[in-house]
C-alpha cells in the first residue's frame, strides 16, 4: 500500500471511529448563528485516541506495520496531508456565502461552527481530534525510529519529550468540554487556517523536534536538566489548564470556588461580567504563557543544542499567540466597552506578568 493511500485510510479510520464510538453530549458556549440556540457537541476524543493508539501497537507488535513506518514515510505522508488539507479548505469554504473576499475567506473561513449529520459531527471538534491522534502516532513512530537506531543507548530526552507531549495530547482530549469555551471555538471560523492547520500543520509541524533529532544519538543530557524541563513543562501546564478550568467553571457555575479555594471576583456593569481573580488576575492571557512555557520545555528536553528544529515549536507559539492576544483584546474591548477598559487598568499585563 502506498504511503499516500495509507494516510488517507488512516484519516478515514479516525473519522469512522469518531462517527461510531459512543460519546457524551454536552452544550457548549457558542450559539448557532441562525437560530441563536447553544450548540450541542458529541465528545468521544479519548476513546477514539485509545482505540487508534491501541491499533498502532497491535500493528507494530504483530509486524503488520513497522513501528517507525510514519517516520520512514514522513515526507510522503506530509505531502498527502497537505493535499487533504487543501481539498478540505476548498470543500468547506467555496459553497458557503462570501464574507470578506475570496483569499481572506479561504484563509479564515466563512462558516463559524459547521456541524453535519444533525449535529453528530462537529467540524472543529473533529479537526482537533484528527490532529491530536495523528500527532500522537507521529510522536510514537518517530520515537520508535530512535529506539531502533540506538536500542542500547537511547536518549532519555527523546523519551521525556514523547512522554510530556503525549500527556499534553491525552489531557487535552480528556478536557474536550473545557475547550468549547476557548478562543478557537468562540472566535474562529473554519477555513485554511483551521482546516489545513489541523489536518497538516498540527500533526506534522508540532513533531518538528523529533523530525530533526530522532536519528541523532544520545546527547547524554544530565538528569537534573531533564528534571528542570519536566518542572517547566508542568508549571506551564498548571498555568494553562488552571486558567482554562477557572474560566470554564465561571462560565458554567459562576458561584463555584475554583479548585475549591479561589472565589470568583468579577467586574460587572449589571449585565456583563469579567473574571479578575485567581489566574485571570495575574495577566489577561495567562494561559498563553503556560502554552509557551510547555513548548519551551519540550524543545529543551531534546538536549541537542546544535539543532534548531526543536526551537521552531516554541517560536511558532510566540508568532501564534501574541497576535491572538491582540485580536482577543480587540474583540473584548468591543464586547465589554468601559468594563474591559477597567479590567485593563486592573490587570495591566497582557501575557507575562511584570514583563508584557
Question: Kindly, what is the distance between the CA atoms of the first and last residues, rounded to a whole number of angstroms?
Answer: 51 Å
Percent in helix: 55-70%
* Overall 3D shape: globular
- Secondary-structure element string: HEEHHHHEEHHHHHHHEEHHH
Using only CA atoms, what is the Rg?
21 Å
- Strand tally, please? 6
Strand content: 5-15%
What labels describe this entry?
356 residues, mainly alpha, 2 domains, two-stranded antiparallel sheet, two-stranded antiparallel ribbon, 7% strand
Sequence-ordered SSE layout with sheet pairings:
Layout: H1 3-20, E1 24-31, E2 38-43, H2 45-61, H3 69-72, H4 74-93, H5 102-108, E3 115-116, E4 121-122, H6 123-149, H7 156-174, H8 176-179, H9 183-187, H10 192-205, H11 208-213, H12 223-252, E5 266-268, E6 273-275, H13 286-301, H14 312-336, H15 338-346
Antiparallel strand pairs: 1-2, 3-4, 5-6
What does this structure look like?
The structure is a single chain. The protein folds into two domains: 1-220, no CATH class; 221-356, no CATH class. The chain has helices at 3-20, 45-61, 69-72, 74-93, 102-108, 123-149, 156-174, 176-179, 183-187, 192-205, 208-213, 223-252, 286-301, 312-336, 338-346; strands at 24-31, 38-43, 115-116, 121-122, 266-268, 273-275. The chain is globular. Helix 4 (74-93) packs antiparallel against helix 10. It starts with a helix and ends in a 10-residue tail after the last helix. It has 356 residues and is mainly alpha-helical. The mean pLDDT is 92. A two-stranded antiparallel ribbon has the order 1-2. A two-stranded antiparallel ribbon has the order 3-4. It contains 15 helices and six strands. It is a multi-pass membrane protein. InterPro entries: ERG24_DHCR-like. It is found in: Membrane. Pfam families: ERG4_ERG24 (PF01222). GO terms for molecular function: Delta14-sterol reductase activity.
Amino acid at each position: 500500500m502506498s504511503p499516500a493511500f495509507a494516510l488517507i485510510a488512516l484519516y478515514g479510520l479516525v473519522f469512522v471511529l469518531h462517527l461510531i464510538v459512543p460519546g457524551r453530549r454536552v452544550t457548549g458556549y457558542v450559539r448557532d448563528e441562525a437560530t441563536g440556540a447553544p450548540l450541542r457537541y458529541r465528545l468521544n476524543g479519548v476513546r477514539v485516541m485509545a482505540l487508534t493508539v491501541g491499533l498502532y501497537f497491535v500493528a507494530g507488535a504483530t509486524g503488520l506495520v513497522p513501528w517507525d513506518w510514519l517516520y520512514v514515510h514522513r515526507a510522503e505522508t506530509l505531502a498527502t496531508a497537505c493535499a487533504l488539507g487543501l481539498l478540505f479548505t476548498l470543500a468547506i469554504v467555496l459553497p458557503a456565502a462570501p464574507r470578506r473576499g475570496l483569499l481572506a475567506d479561504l484563509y479564515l473561513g466563512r462558516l463559524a461552527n459547521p456541524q453535519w449529520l444533525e449535529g453528530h459531527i462537529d467540524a472543529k471538534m473533529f479537526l482537533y481530534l484528527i490532529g491530536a491522534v495523528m500527532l500522537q502516532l507521529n510522536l510514537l513512530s518517530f520515537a520508535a525510529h530512535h529506539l531502533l537506531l540506538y536500542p542500547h543507548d537511547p536518549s532519555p530526552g527523546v523519551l521525556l519529550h514523547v512522554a510530556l507531549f503525549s500527556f499534553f495530547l491525552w489531557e487535552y482530549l480528556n478536557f474536550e468540554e473545557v475547550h468549547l469555551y476557548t478562543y478557537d471555538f468562540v472566535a474562529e471560523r473554519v477555513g485554511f487556517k483551521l482546516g489545513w492547520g489541523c489536518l497538516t500543520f498540527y500533526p506534522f509541524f508540532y513533531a518538528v523536534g523529533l523530525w530533526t533529532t530522532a536519528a541523532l544519538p544520545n546527547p547524554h543530557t544530565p538528569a537534573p536538566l531533564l528534571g528542570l524541563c519536566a518542572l517547566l513543562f508542568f508549571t506551564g501546564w498548571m498555568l494553562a489548564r488552571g486558567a482554562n478550568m477557572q474560566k470554564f467553571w465561571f462560565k458554567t457555575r459562576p458561584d463555584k470556588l475554583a479548585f475549591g479555594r479561589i472565589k470568583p471576583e468579577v467586574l460587572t456593569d449589571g449585565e456583563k461580567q469579567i473574571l479578575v481573580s485567581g489566574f485571570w488576575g495575574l495577566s489577561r492571557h495567562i494561559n498563553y504563557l503556560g502554552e509557551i512555557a510547555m513548548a519551551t520545555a519540550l524543545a529543551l528536553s531534546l538536549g541537542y543544542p546544535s539543532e534548531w528544529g526543536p526551537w521552531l515549536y516554541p517560536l511558532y507559539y510566540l508568532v501564534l499567540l501574541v497576535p491572538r492576544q491582540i485580536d482577543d483584546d480587540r474583540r473584548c474591548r468591543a464586547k465589554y466597552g468601559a468594563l474591559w477598559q477597567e479590567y485593563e487598568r486592573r490587570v495591566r499585563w497582557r501575557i507575562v506578568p511584570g514583563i508584557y
